[in-house]
Design goal:
With about 270 residues, this protein is α/β, with parallel strands linked by helices. The protein has a domain at about 20-205: Rossmann fold. It is about 40% helix and about 10% strand. The chain has ten helices and seven strands. Strand 3 (about 25-30), helix 1 and strand 4 (about 55) form a beta-alpha-beta unit. The longest helix is centred in the last third of the chain and has 21 residues, at about 250-270. The protein is globular, with a radius of gyration of 21 Å. The protein starts with a strand and ends with a helix.
């Protein structure tokens, strides 16, 4: 037992119910370098929680371009990784041998759409998340002792997600009564808050079909080279689907932003 930053009593950091009962051999923090996972690591260090390493899986757009928003990738490799290493936290970086482009241009092998390009992933059934992130993480987890404790960055005000934790999965944010906003403030105080929070409240790949308009607009305005790569993929023939998300093609979004830009310029000239 102990007290949190508010002086409230906190409980012991015990995994949720599982079949194992002996002391864990390893403690691993899952890390995306977002506010919740970094706050988890900072809390582990502050409170002397056991921590053997942090594990980060980087999704790649192609063999040379990261799937991370460029500002976030710069933060990861130029700020967060060096700082955590200075703090004594080993970082393991995982990558799949598959990339977004590999999967996009892969051909359907059976059924009525056989021979067509797999195209954009479907919202809610993202094959990129499955093949480029979840699969390499699970492959690495198979090399760990079965009683390894996994620190997962889920805040105390995310009750639905907390209820889905199973086995030796632990939320230190829940233990120390940290909300999402508390996690953000802890990272900001430590100088470890990613600049992506200036234009979004979520992490994710820059080509994610769940991206909000503000995130796509940021990509359009600040990373035209990446935007152009998506338009190149949109132009490929023989795709399973032309839709980037449930409502629009990437070309539709591009045309809308161009129109908005033209209207804005006309308004400014008339002012």
């Amino acid at each position: 037992m102990g007290t949190d930053k508010h002086g409230r009593t906190t409980g012991m950091c015990l995994p949720r119910q599982g079949s194992w009962g002996v002391a864990a051999l390893k403690h691993i923090a899952s890390c995306s370098f977002g506010k919740d996972s970094l706050a988890t690591i900072l809390l582990a260090l502050e409170h002397g929680e056991p921590l053997d390493e942090a594990v980060y899986c980087e999704v790649m757009f192609d063999k040379t371009i990261s799937g991370e928003v460029p500002e976030h990738r710069d933060f990861i490799y130029n700020t967060a990784l060096p700082r955590l290493e200075q703090m004594g936290v080993p970082i393991r970086v995982l990558r799949s041998d598959k990339t977004y482009v590999d999967l996009f241009t892969g051909q359907v092998t059976r059924g009525p759409k056989k021979g067509k390009l797999r195209s954009f992933p479907i919202c809610g059934k993202c094959y990129v998340q499955r093949d480029c992130k979840i699969r390499p993480i699970r492959q690495y987890q198979k090399t760990l002792p079965p009683d390894t404790v996994h620190y997962i960055g889920i805040a105390r005000d995310e009750q639905e997600r907390l209820l889905r934790l199973t086995g030796p999965q632990v939320s230190l944010l829940e233990k120390y009564l940290y909300t999402e906003d508390d996690a953000k403030q802890l990272c900001r105080k430590a100088g470890l808050l990613s600049p992506v929070y200036e234009f979004t409240n979520r992490g994710g790949c820059w080509f994610c079909p769940n991206a909000k308009k503000k995130e796509l607009r940021h990509l359009y305005d600040h990373h035209p080279d990446l935007w152009a790569r998506m338009l190149e993929l949109q132009a490929l023939p023989g795709k399973v689907s032309e839709k980037f998300n449930r409502a629009e093609t990437f070309s539709d979004i591009d045309a809308r932003f161009r129109t908005e830009g033209t209207q804005k310029n006309a308004f400014e000239m008339a002012a």
